[in-house]
Amino acid sequence: MSNLKKATMVLGKEYKISEVDKRIYGSFIEHLGRAVYGGIYEPGHSKADELGFRKDVMDLVKELRVPIVRYPGGNFVSGYNWEDGVGPKEKRKRKLELAWRTVETNQVGINEFMEWSKRVNTEVMMAVNLGTRGVDEARNLVEYCNHSQGSHYSDLRIEHGYKEPHKVKTWCLGNEMDGPWQIGHKTAEEYGRLACETAKVMKWVDPTIELVVCGSSHKFMDTYPKWESTVLEHTYENVDYISLHSYYGNLENDTPNYLAKSLDMDAFIKSVIATCDYIKAKKRSKKTINLSFDEWNVWYHSREQDKKIEPWSIAPPQIEDVYNMEDALLVGSLLITLLKNANRVKIACLAQLVNVIAPIMTENGGRAWRQTIFYPYMHASIYGRGYVLNPLVKSPKYDSKDYTDVPVLDSVATVNEDKDEITIFAVNKDMKDTLNIHCDIRGFIDSKVIEHIVFQNDDVKITNSKDHPFRVIPQFKNDAVVEEGYLNALLPKLSWNVIRLSTK
Ligand code: AHR
Predict the structure, then answer these.
(1) 189: annotated active-site residue
(2) Nearest to 332, CA basis, from 270, 374, 392, 282
(3) What is the pLDDT of residue 179?
(4) Residue 376 and residue 350: Cα distance in Å, rounded?
(5) How far is the CA of 75 from the centre of ligand 1 (A)?
(6) Model pTM above 0.85
(7) Is residue 75 lining ligand 1, measured as CB closer than 6 Å?
């Protein structure tokens, strides 16, 4: 039987954490599995445009309003020669791709991806290869992408049909260089020196760019957080952000414990901030390094399936997690966590965007559909713009296998002053009870509920699929009300909620 639990919140105009950098809603496309080939690009598909990009996929990407997409990897970038993917398509080399043991056809490269990004109204966050390559390749790539004309690489871009520079602003200095699985894995000292010199020279080519240096691949690496401190010792004055990566899973099939994992993300963020600020103090620097959480998501469903993939195939279905309802709840909670830390997390990328651990799935030659995690990501990206408010939350708590005092209510709010709107994002993690939230919004005059979107299903393992693409979709609830400056709303058990309010 479902009981009613209560939680209170206070939202005040003055309690701003930070302006939201829209790049916090970024995503990621790697040359991996069917992300590019069969995902965004499938010439011959009935919905492909004249360049071979799937328009059905583009429409779904546009629904998400993705502001930035990291490209081309990931582990892939550490063995990538970008020159293989530019120029006439018929001359492009097929290569063994060692990170994922496939064959890369290079039919999509930098120019095609930049063109795709324009068509879906997003920016590109480009990664350079610091696995097998270094300063020289990186500076040439910046020249190719960002220099207007009159130099070898800028003129080569023009010769390839792209007169205007791509103006890529945000760049990653390699990928997960602390990981022994990485092509060209390095120690923190080796990477720190290389990243410093590469950063310096890339900024000499284009001083307007911003750089992300690699932090640890995840917080369980033996080298974490010494890696961060050593790398920042070398690079502090030359870079702008440090990366964090983290994937979550429910291997033990323990939902309360799984949903508590947002606390892990929060602790990880706080400890990386502490490490950055320790180096800041040590260097007596005035500069603050911000965070780029440029790989985060749920990833565990596909691990067994992936062991069966034939090596050296072209675009096999790799790491295609099928997401369920509880995954969407955790993704919602992780988005709330990123927003709560928006004063330091300026970039974050849901990894990835299409087919590979992705909100959007496709069938080769067939349809495209939205996975469960699509919805919280879309809601946050559309409505979570403006300023983040620090909500004072009082919530019932629970203990799980690995966590104590987990708040049942995970919530944050944003205020969009241009539109006079407040949006409350909230997850009710309770396994059986509805949560009544009583929220003090007296600081906002004349507030009214615009809508209360609820994403919930009694079966937390329910999924969408090719044949049932709309099995779980968000619904609207109409019992949220504002009375005398207090919002009252009922959040069903195990639900993701978006409560939108108009204000003055
Ligand atoms: O997103 C999939 C992979 O996860 C990326 O290639 C790598 O950076 C990470 O380990």
Answers:
(1) no
(2) 374
(3) 97
(4) 11
(5) 6
(6) yes
(7) yes
Is residue 30 in contact with ligand 1, taking CB distance under 6 Å? yes
Q: Could you give the CA distance from residue 66 to residue 377 in angstroms, rounded to a whole number?
A: 9
Q: Are the CB atoms for 396 and 415 separated by under 8 Å?
A: no
- Measure the CA–CA gap between 347 and 268, rounded to whole angstroms: 15
Whether residue 316 is preceded by a cis peptide bond, meaning omega within 30 degrees of 0, is no
- Span 427-473, pLDDT tens digits: 999 999 999 999 999 999 999 999 999 999 999 999 999 999 999 99
What is the spatial distance between Cα 278 and Cα 297, in angstroms, rounded to a whole number?
Answer: 28
Find out whether the beta carbon of 214 lies less than 6 Å from any atom of ligand 1. Answer: no
* Residue 390 and residue 462 in contact, taking contact as beta carbons nearer than 8 Å: no
210: β partners: 170
Q: Which of 97, 295, 320, 326 is catalytic?
A: 295
Q: Is 294 in the pocket of ligand 1 (CB under 6 A)?
A: no
The structure tokens listed for 504 are 């003055």
Relative to beta strand 345-351, strand 26-28 is parallel
Q: Which residues are within 8 A (CB) of 159 and not within 5 positions of it... i.e. 6 or more apart?
A: none
CB contact set of 288 (below 8 Å; sequence gap of 6+):
276, 277, 280, 344
pLDDT beyond 80 at 1? no
* Residue 137 annotated to the active site: no
DSSP conformation letters of 109-164: -HHHHHHHHHHTT-EEEEEE--SS--HHHHHHHHHHHH--SSSHHHHHHHHTT--S
Supply φ then ψ for residue 256, to 5 degrees.
-60, -40
* Token representation of residue 495: 């639900």
Supply the residue whose CA is at minimum distance from atom 5 of ligand 1. Answer: 74
Q: Find the Cα–Cα–Cα–Cα dihedral 427, 428, 430, 431, rounded to 10°.
A: -70
- CB 241, CB 210: distance < 8 Å: yes
Residue keyed to tokens 């330091």: 344
Helix (H, G, I), strand (E, B) or coil at 190: helix
Distance CA 168, CA 278 (A): 30
Express each pLDDT in 321-353 by its tens digit: 999 999 999 999 999 999 999 999 999 999 999
3-state secondary structure of 309: coil
**Which amino acid does the sequence have at 270?**
K
Task: Return the bridge partners of 440, or none.
Answer: 10, 486
Q: Which residue has the CA at smallest separation from atom 2 of ligand 1?
A: 74
Question: Alpha-carbon distance 354 to 257, whole Å?
Answer: 28
Q: Atom 3 (ligand 1): residue with closest C-alpha?
A: 74
For 353-385, the pLDDT digits (tens) are 999 999 999 999 999 999 999 999 999 999 999
